[in-house]
Structures are given as structure tokens and as C-alpha cells.
Amino acid sequence: DGYPAITPPWGTLNAIDLNTGKYVWKIPLGEYPELATKGLKNTGTENYGGPIVTAGDLLFIGATVYDRKFRAFDSLTGQLLWETVLPFSAIATPATYMIDGKQYVVVTAGGGKDPKSPSGSVYVAFALP
């Protein structure tokens, strides 16, 4: 199907202790939908765009080209806490803002890197509890 058989080096999300330079955790980021339907999940995929981390240690990232998912991780452990599928891939770094004491995370979803998926142009915002 045109997808690599092994996880490329860019298919991971890493946390590094800046005091020691050592990895705190390292996990695959992204999935190939065709492989996930066959039970091959957490393969890691090509991704573009970085994460943001909130004061509450939540890490938000889109970035994955093929699965169109937007995810929240525990930034201290790398544990996946939440994910949702967006209308298009979020190949962008999210932003966070507050209105009347309520915090939100917003990301641009436009796709454009996967020739098998449509492209578009939307902003998607989520309220934090």
C-alpha cells in the first residue's frame, strides 16, 4: 500500500530530561489506518508539527499524517489519556488560550501530506475540564 514496513525514526514521541540528556520515555506516535485495521497498532508514522505542554502536565499533539488523530498524553509518563479523530490531519503545533478562566486547546487541521486523504482547512478547539 505504499507504507513502510518498519517504524521510521520520525515515528516516535520522546521526553528527554534536560538536566541529564537521557530519555524519560519514548513511544510510537501515529498509526497507518490500513495496518491498524489488521491489528497492527502503535506503529508510529511520519509526523510534522510539535507538541505543547500545559501547566497541568498535559501534552497535546496532532502532527500525524495518516491517522488524523489529535492526542493528549501525560507529559511525565507518556501515557495516552485521550484522542480524537479530526476531519483532516493536524500537521501543526497546537496552541492554548484562556477565556473567563476556562482553558482551551486549538489546532489547525488541514491535511495535505497524505495523497490518499482529502485536504481542508479548519480550526478545532477543545475545552479542558
Question: What would you note in describing this structure?
Answer:
With 129 residues, this protein is mainly beta. Helices cover 3% and strands 37% of the residues. The chain has one helix and nine strands. The chain has a four-stranded antiparallel sheet with strand order 3-4-5-6, with no helix packed on it. It has a three-stranded antiparallel sheet with strand order 7-8-9, with no helix packed on it. Strand 5 and strand 6 form a beta hairpin. The longest helix has 4 residues, at 33-36.
Keyphrases for this structure?
129 residues; mainly beta; 1 helix; 37% strand; globular; disordered N terminus
Number of DSSP-assigned strands = 9
Task: Summarize the amount of helix as a percent range.
Answer: under 10%
**Which sequence of SSEs, written as H and E, runs from N to C?**
EEHEEEEEEE
Measure the end-to-end span. 40 Å
Average per-residue pLDDT, rounded, comes to 90
Low-confidence stretches: 1-8
> How would you sum up the major sheet?
4 strands, antiparallel
Give the class from helix and strand content and strand pairing.
Answer: mainly beta
**Shape, principal axes of CA atoms:** globular
Helix-strand blueprint:
Layout: E1 12-16, E2 23-28, H1 33-36, E3 52-53, E4 58-61, E5 69-74, E6 80-85, E7 95-99, E8 102-109, E9 122-127
Antiparallel strand pairs: 1-2, 3-4, 4-5, 5-6, 7-8, 8-9
Summarize the structure.
By secondary structure, this protein is mainly beta. Helices cover 3% and strands 37% of the residues.
